[in-house]
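re: ur question from earlier - yeah i can do the single chain one, its not a big deal. heres the input i used so u can compare w yours
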Amino acid sequence: MDLGIGLPVTGPQADPEEIVRVAQAAERAGLGAVWTYERLLRPAEPWMLGLEQVIPLPEESASVYDPLETLAYLAARTSTIRLGATVVDALFHPPVVLARRLATLDRLSGGRMWIGLGQGWMKQEFEAAGVPVKRRGAGFAEHVQAMRACWGPDPVSFSGRFYTIPESGIGPKPTGLTLLGGAAAPAALERVAALGLGLTTVVFDWDQLAQGVETYRKAGGSGPLVIQVNGTVSERPLDERAPLTGSPEQIAEDLPRAEALGADHVLWQPIGFETDGLVERIAEINTY
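and the output i got, formated as tokens:
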């Protein structure tokens, strides 16, 4: 198991120089991967989770660097560190377009891409992308199948309920791309497993995480497990803390629980995307 960091792709530090600085510092420190994510927009109130639950989004969400362009930029500025996204909302992109972009990134990076695919959750983003919310679920599964068809031998063709690709030559083909599925709800976890994807999921508490991983494994999931921590690594110990947060020493005490679940990678998505000193503190975890 190795460790990683979310890049400053939003907020006051979001500029090309800072993104490169963090990625190169992480590579020098021996971290396993750097990560970005996709956010199309920050809607005016209310912010909708699906069709019912209203949740706030930070003001920084109004401006987020595109994940694939960011990773392409970093592919040219790094050499060995894995480059990841958790997650790209697959349904907002036509399968043939996203398949070619991911394959191109895979080739340009020398097979260093770990791409998490999600089906989206915000009603307003579906509206802006011109995609019906009802396409979640079965539409996501078919999207992944259509992309995999693009990556197969030419001539490629695909005919499904939502997507059609006429018989064609489509390239480039990926050689080392690792695909993950972003999931937390039981049905989504089972779908990710059925599609043969690895799993990327956020940890809120240990029991919830263990139940999610168990659901994924029981459904046949056997791919890489990436755990995202929506928090930071503090300089000093914390009296009250969520899983895998606190000081480097406290987090080092937590890591065996993540390893016991079969985690391949743990990443920290810093609060407010404040990354000063964070690479060094993450690297320090491995010294305990």
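The mean pLDDT is 94. not sure if urs matches, ping me
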